[in-house]
Design brief:
This is Protein kinase domain-containing protein. By secondary structure, this protein is an alpha+beta fold. It has eleven helices and eleven strands. 41% of the residues lie in helices and 17% in strands. The termini are far apart.
Length: 353
């Protein structure tokens, strides 16, 4: 362990962390809480690389419609928010995410935004193993509010032309004081209406999930999602945490997606061996389509050396490894569908009686 991290210092840090958590638990954020903040832009000035956004967007089977940006004064150093609904809250989370209304000066408008609060008191931690060198090392970067915000700020800056298309608009990072007295950094973003990726269990029950029409729709969605990830890579961003909870599907006839949570993002050009985005794409695809259907499509693309497949999946070794998990994953999905059906049947019987 580095000499800079003595046992006494770590024990003191653990005690302070526990005390901060107790304070946060006793003073939870609530609907109606008012938060005032000042812009933290100076902390997150990031160098970005040039990109050809038109070429990147050209690979998409369907180009998403542009969502307009709120008219917020970019030069305004302060912000006033009123929390309206918790979207992701609780202990052991890297962020407390809230829907909020934002006050626009000199107007009576209070449009909705999302604020991602990096409340360190609720951060997950590895327990009290004070000899965990890996955690101490990473704690100086990714496992701190500043580290998470730096990553996310860089990604949103690098992908600025894709804001309002493949990711939310970013309205900036702010220093905010919570009612409990703790100071946090908050990322204020566009609120995008959509749903996290989730297998259609009801469709599995009634059989519609397996219909030819639905299979065609599912394939279109998986293809669109894959090329969305490829578009990020062409803009030199490796997301690093593509997952069903970090991808929103926008309601509508065409499959459009929005990526969330760029805390683990890095420059794609710095990735040397394989990508986490390949595993993430596989996991997301399982929610949309049968693994036995999309796996051959991915393998065929790799055999043909299609650029998108090489960018995301690397080579055949990843798909060959993951394809062995398909039967087990499908059994889990089927079991979940059966539990849902049983619950629905029991509810129906209770209503009859």
């Amino acid at each position: 362990m580095s000499p800079y991290f003595s046992r006494q210092k770590i024990e003191r840090a653990i005690a302070e962390r526990n005390a901060d958590r107790i304070i946060a638990e006793r003073n939870p954020l609530r609907e109606g809480t008012l938060l005032n903040g000042t812009r933290a832009s100076g902390l997150f000035d990031q160098e970005v690389s040039p990109i050809d956004v038109d070429a990147a967007l050209a690979v998409l089977p369907y180009r998403p419609p542009f969502r307009p940006r709120l008219i917020l004064d970019e030069e305004d150093e302060s912000i006033s928010l009123s929390l309206t609904r918790g979207l992701q809250t609780g202990k052991d989370r890297w962020a407390q995410v809230w829907l909020a209304s934002v006050h626009i000066p000199r107007t009576t408008e209070h449009p909705q935004v999302v604020v991602k609060l990096l409340q360190e008191a609720f951060f997950p931690h590895p327990g009290d193993d004070i000899d965990d060198d890996d955690y101490v090392t990473e704690g100086a970067s990714l496992h701190t509010p500043i580290g998470i915000c730096r990553n996310e700020a860089w990604a949103f800056t690098q992908l600025r032309p894709l804001q309002g298309l493949l990711l939310p608009h970013s309205y900036g990072f702010y220093h905010l004081e919570l009612p409990c007295g703790q100071n946090v950094i908050g990322h204020v973003m566009e609120y995008v209406e959509g749903h996290a990726l989730k297998r259609d269990y009801q469709g599995m029950i009634d059989g519609s999930f397996y219909s030819a029409e639905r299979r065609s729709e599912s394939r279109a969605a998986v293809v669109q999602l894959a090329f969305n990830v490829y578009c990020l890579h062409l803009c030199d961003v490796h997301h690093g945490d593509v997952s069903p909870n970090n991808v929103l599907q926008i309601p509508g006839k065409l499959p459009f997606f929005v990526f969330l949570d760029f805390a683990r993002a890095s420059a794609y050009s710095d990735i040397m061996f394989g990508t986490m985005d390949g595993c993430g794409l596989w996991t997301c695809s399982e929610e949309l389509e049968l693994g036995e259907t999309f796996c051959p499509w991915m393998e065929d693309a790799l055999v043909k050396h299609e650029p998108w497949a090489l960018s995301i999946l690397g080579d055949l070794s990843l798909t060959r490894q993951l394809k062995h998990t398909i039967p087990g994953a499908e059994r889990d999905y089927e079991a979940q569908a059966m539990r849902l059906k049983k619950s629905q049947d029991e509810k129906g019987q209770n209503e009859v009686h």
